[in-house]
Amino acid sequence: MGKMIKDRFHISRDELESRMEKQKLLHDDPIKKAVEILQFALDKVMKKLGVDVDQEPEVIHAQQEQLGIIVTEETREDMAGLNGFFVSLVRKGDIIPYAWIGSAQLNSMGECSCEVHWFQDNRLDEVGGIKLIK
Fold first, then answer.
1. CB within 8 A of 51, min separation 6: which ones?
2. What does pTM read for this prediction?
3. What is the pLDDT of residue 134?
4. Does some domain include residue 38?
């Protein structure tokens, strides 16, 4: 056969590994960190309601059910369409809003955080503040 012609559709193994490492560093790792921030915020709310968040997921869900805690993922149109989680309590058949955990946001410094709106305390906390890309 003739000489192999390299074109834009073929790359070397080193180039592929380099691109995969760059994808991990610039895309996958920051997404994982943002999810960890959201999980930390949700755990913070759950702990305040008496849930032992260090248990297996099945045990955590059982505790939530026993304590009358409902967590729903929703879009808040009154907050510019932000996605997040509503945490509510069921008391005497009524659903009482307890907290809103907003989606992870990135500021101009490259730091990721999310807000927790505590409805019963009428206050706002920021969770995170972690730089995603170094």
1. 60, 63, 64, 67, 69
2. 0.72
3. 59
4. yes
